[in-house]
Design a protein that fits this description.
It is elongated, with a radius of gyration of 24 Å. The protein contains 11 helices and 19 strands. The N and C termini lie close together (about 10 Å). The longest helix has 15 residues. Strand 4, helix 4 and strand 5 form a beta-alpha-beta unit. The strands form 4 sheets. Strands 1, 11, 14, 15, 16, 17, 18 and 19 form an 8-stranded mixed β-sheet that branches. The protein has a 7-stranded parallel β-sheet with strand order 3-4-5-6-7-8-9. By secondary structure, the protein is an alpha/beta fold. The structure holds pyridoxal-5'-phosphate. Pyridoxal-5'-phosphate binds next to loops. Pathway: Amino-acid biosynthesis; D-alanine biosynthesis; D-alanine from L-alanine: step 1/1. It holds the Pfam family Ala_racemase_N.
């Protein structure tokens, strides 16, 4: 059963309920760690509030599961989780320090990923000022043209007499653009570029793979992998069975139901018009909850007792509600408050994302603050609701 529900949004009044299975999260971490084996560090990407699931709950759970290396995108995200972790853990900040925030980065006990010559120079300047070497990761651009030192940058850096003086480099890293397409030639090409650039620098632990890269095979593991999505149940191997456990369930509760006749319109813009006598349920979740407006007319909901029936979302998504055609349920009683799954055991995150024309990553990180959140810590991910 649900444990420690958040106090100020009682389940009884909420329009939507977001259940996050911390036991499944921990199991996913262990699966990924076991997949790469004992010689490889399994870090965790917890940026964007742990992909929308709540870093304050996710980070301590991952630490309990054995994770000691965390990646966030911004200083503020790192500062928020630093107090949750002891000195045994390292928090890398992927975007590196914005100019002028180097001292704050150090003060917060965070390790920047240095992506450009400017970031390196500014971090070294702080080390020089304080008289202490400062830890950092170095990012190389292996072909994504997003973050990291290019070939030319590496040459410029190495033309200095003591290019890394003042730094304690902990890691050299890069990121794959096409890891979710195993046959894509960019994967090999990026790996080759990474090896070539890395060979010019002092020997350092290396990291290239995130969730999907981790499943490309041991050639991509190096010394550390940095999964995010897979921890949260997103399929890292699209097109193949999902090797991860689902972590998120999203339920929307019925506010009211009505019978309508043929020709009757539903929602803004009369976006749906019934072509037969229909039973419509209005659910208390809308785009104001981060449930994508683009899913209107495409997605479906499921009554857990009837997983065989896909109940179509009809008409446009409103800010605070959406409409579902529940005609297929016949006269099954649907009391106000009844919860239908928008994401659940019979309705994957990927399916919902696809119906909205997006990916699981965007759907998760967009899920708003308005849901009643339940963090399940039951020992078994095969608990009552799965
Ligand atoms: C977001 C991110 C990750 C995690 O990626 P997933 O695909 O979610 O596993 C790892 N490394 C970098 C540099 C990232 O930006």
């Amino acid at each position: 059963m649900p444990v420690d529900a958040e106090p100020n949004a009682p389940a009884a009044s909420a329009g939507g309920i977001l259940t996050i299975d911390l036991a499944a999260l921990a199991e996913n971490y262990r699966r990924l760690r076991d997949h790469v084996g004992p010689g490889v560090t399994c870090a965790a990407a917890v940026k964007a509030d742990a992909y929308g699931l709540g870093a304050a709950r996710v980070v301590p759970e991952l630490h309990r599961a054995g994770c000691r290396t965390f990646f966030v995108a911004h200083l503020a995200e790192g500062a928020a989780i630093r107090p949750l972790l002891g000195a045994d853990s390292t928090i890398f900040v992927l975007n590196g320090p914005m100019p002028g925030t180097e001292a704050a980065m150090r003060q917060a006990g965070l390790v920047p990923v240095l992506n450009s010559l400017e970031q390196i120079a500014n971090w070294r300047a702080l080390a020089h000022q304080t008289g202490t070497p400062l830890p950092a990761a170095l990012q190389l651009d292996s072909g994504m043209s997003r973050f990291g030192l290019s070939d030319a940058d590496v040459a410029t850096l190495l033309s200095e007499d003591t290019p890394l003086a003042g730094l304690t480099p902990l890691l050299v890293m890069s990121h794959l653009a096409c890891a979710d397409e195993p046959a894509h030639p960019a994967n090999r090409a990026q790996r080759t570029t990474f090896l070539r650039l890395r060979a010019q620098l002092p020997a350092l632990p290396a990291s290239l793979a995130a969730s999907s890269g981790l499943f490309l095979g041991p050639d991509w593991h190096f010394d550390m992998v940095r999964p995010g999505a897979a921890l949260y149940g997103i399929n890292p191997t699209p097109g193949q069975p999902n090797p991860m456990l689902p972590v998120v369930r999203l339920q929307a509760r019925i506010v009211q139901t009505r019978q309508i006749g043929p020709g009757t319109a539903v929602g803004y813009g009369a976006g749906f018009i019934a072509d037969r006598p229909s039973r419509i349920a209005t659910l208390g979740v809308g785009y104001g909850d981060g449930f994508p407006r683009a899913i209107g007319g495409h997605g479906h909901a499921i009554l857990p007792e009837r997983p065989d029936l896909r109940l179509p979302i009809v008409g446009r998504i409103s800010m605070d509600c959406l409409a579902v055609d529940v005609t297929a349920l016949g006269d099954t009683p649907l009391a106000p408050g009844t919860a239908l799954d928008l994401i659940g055991p019979h309705h994957s995150l990927e399916d919902a994302a696809e119906a909205a024309g997006t990916i699981g990553y965007e759907l998760l990180t967009g899920l708003g603050r308005r849901y009643h959140r339940i963090y399940r810590a039951d020992a078994s991910p095969q608990g009552d609701n799965r």
